[in-house]
Design a protein that fits this description.
The chain has 244 residues and is α+β, with helices and mostly antiparallel strands. Helices cover 29% and strands 34% of the residues.
């Protein structure tokens, strides 16, 4: 990063815009690589001799353009290209991320049991009142949070699934331990909503940002529902691709 940058205050161009264009040029020149963190707002402000509000406006403009990513509590980063995420009969997070030369991981963030209400019973094709496992997960690529998911399974079919997922970080591996060697996607529904406070914390995005909501059902080889998931995806980090 250049040590000293002069602002042309008589150019008729807003100072925040001059800072934004300078940052854009620094990224374009490779001085900051995708995924790298920028200096703090205070450091940038000091280099330009401006206040932090001016720098914040420049960063916000570049974030809106998709060039930067502001992660709450972590700083501002050069945005990596979004993950191309195909939706098909065999949608597997770990495989999709690994195939794009990124490191996938999954973390158990919560679990519990609950009786199936009418909606969950319909998704999983079980009677209302069936005891279900609820598993909360955070999926990450190269250390960047991508997806917060809530999944439901029949407890009687997969009694050890919470432990197995905690150990493997993969539903595919956990289901294999339970004797289910394969499964396929039956249906995917995609919508959008504003992120809630807890998901914003987990995804490290600003409150009020939009997230993609991806609901899906997976079936076993006999066509019986195995898993219903409601995932919340950081909208600027993933490009969903629907395959025919």
């Amino acid at each position: 990063m250049t040590k000293r940058v002069n602002i042309d205050r008589g150019a008729g161009i807003a100072i925040w815009r001059q800072i934004a264009e300078w940052l854009r040029a620094e990224v374009g020149a490779g001085h900051f690589e995708p995924g790298s963190r920028l200096p703090t707002e205070a450091e940038i402000a000091a280099r330009f001799g401006v206040n932090r509000h001016t720098v914040r406006r420049a960063i916000a403009a570049l974030a809106a353009d998709g060039l930067l990513r502001a992660d709450q509590g972590r700083g501002t980063f050069v945005a990596a290209a979004p993950i191309s995420y195909p939706i098909s009969a065999r949608t597997r997070f770990s495989d999709i991320v690994a195939n794009q030369a990124r490191a996938p991981s999954g973390r158990l963030i919560g679990s519990g049991t609950e009786e199936a209400d009418a909606l969950l019973a319909a998704w999983l094709d079980v009677p209302v009142g069936t005891l279900l496992l609820r598993i909360e997960t955070l999926r990450v690529a190269d250390g960047v949070p991508i997806l917060v998911g809530t999944s439901w399974f029949e407890q009687a079919r997969f009694p050890s699934l919470v432990k197995d997922y905690a150990e493997t970080g993969s539903f595919t591996a956990a289901l294999e331990r339970a004797g289910l060697a394969d499964y396929r996607r039956k249906e995917t529904r995609i919508a959008a909503e504003l992120v809630d406070a807890e998901d914003a914390r987990l995804l490290e995005v600003a409150a009020g940002q939009p997230v993609l909501v991806v609901e899906s059902v997976n079936l076993d080889p006999d066509g019986r529902p195995v898993q219903y998931t409601r995932g919340r995806v950081a909208a600027d980090r993933v490009q969903l691709v629907v395959e025919n």
